[in-house]
Specification:
By secondary structure, this protein is an alpha/beta fold. 53% of the residues lie in helices and 12% in strands. The chain binds guanosine-5'-diphosphate and magnesium ion. The site of magnesium ion has 6 residues, from helix 6 and helix 7.
């Protein structure tokens, strides 16, 4: 995984390491200019102002107290980022059926992530049912259908323009009756109708709990890493309405701004559970804070 995430984070790494690893002197004492550089890099990688300032304060304090080499600074950076990110949290489908609802703004990668997740569970030998809860556009259902075919899992669809909550309810009922292990529900993400969307999502979550006590077991919020700080505002909006249990950070293969994971975890306490590193079914990784930070700060070979 380290290799893959390091590759995916290449751009981030280039910016980060390039700057942190090769711009500051690793063996010599840091200067005020070096610390300014570190600050710039952290901010431009979307790590967030709070975390950046804490790190910079510590670096400044330590340099004025005595020797602090670039290597020491990198250790401090890694420790700080790890403190914020916390322990790794894997998704374990330990209920039957295990119900996952996937939410997020249009285009962030919800449907793609569902396809990838379905493949993962299928490969584990689990029986998977997708629920086409984005009933707003016919194309959205078709896209989910294509993924279901591609990875070889079943899909439950409602009538066109059906109530998304009823589609999810029926999917869970079907899963109970037919012995499915996992239900993964897609949802719409039209943010221009924010209020309606949030009401709709609340209803889906509520209704899932009626179909099966304890459901949903996961509500995953998908955030596109390339949107930078905007991802944080999206996370705030969704977290106000539904009980988000984890974050999926997508498109990490196309950005120099992977630090938004740190900002969201810090501000909202939502753990990052998965990362998307491409458009293919296998391009989904469990989030490992240690490897992520290593790739982000020190770079990977
Ligand atoms: N490069 C890259 N593209 C992704 C990733 N995840 C999703 N995409 C692409 O982002 C676009 C929108 O994804 P989609 O799943 O339709 O988003 P949705 O509107 O949230 O359902 C599609 O072209 C996907 O192929 C990722 O991790 N990396
Ligand atoms: Mg979609």
């Amino acid at each position: 995984m380290f290799k893959k995430i390091a590759q995916a984070l290449k751009k981030t790494t280039e910016k980060f390491t390039h700057a942190v690893g090769s711009v500051i002197p690793l063996k010599k004492k840091l200067t005020a200019e070096d610390i300014d550089l570190v600050e710039e890099i952290l901010i431009s990688a979307d790590v967030g102002v709070d975390t950046t300032m804490e790190i910079i304060d510590e670096l400044t304090e330590r340099t004025s107290a005595g020797e602090l080499s670039g290597e020491d600074a990198i250790k401090i950076l890694e420790r700080h980022l790890l403190d914020v990110l916390g322990e790794p949290q894997r998704i374990v489908a330990d209920k039957k059926p295990f119900v996952i609802i996937v939410v997020g703004v249009n285009g962030t990668g919800k449907t793609t992530t569902i396809g990838k997740l379905a493949k993962r569970f299928k490969d584990e030998g689990k029986k998977v049912l997708l629920a086409a809860g984005d009933t707003f556009r016919a194309a959205a259902q078709e896209q989910l259908e294509i993924w279901a075919e591609r990875v070889g899992v079943d899909i439950h669809k409602g009538a066109e323009k059906a109530d998304p909550a009823s589609v999810v309810f029926d999917a869970i009922e079907k899963a109970k009756a037919r012995g499915y292990d996992v239900v993964i529900a897609d949802t719409a993400g039209r943010l221009h109708t924010k209020k309606n969307l949030m009401e709709e999502l609340k209803k889906i979550v509520r209704v899932a709990g009626k179909a099966l006590e304890g459901a949903p077991h996961e509500v995953l919020l998908v955030i596109d890493a390339t949107t930078g700080q905007n991802g944080l505002s999206q996370a705030e909006v969704f977290a106000q309405s539904v009980p988000i249990t984890g974050l999926v950070l997508t498109k990490l293969d196309g950005t120099a701004r992977g630090g938004i994971a740190v900002a969201i975890r810090r501000k909202l306490g939502i753990p990052i559970k998965l990362v998307g590193v491409g458009e293919k079914a296998e391009d989904l990784l469990d989030f490992d804070p240690e490897e992520y930070v290593k790739a982000l700060v020190a770079g990977g070979e």
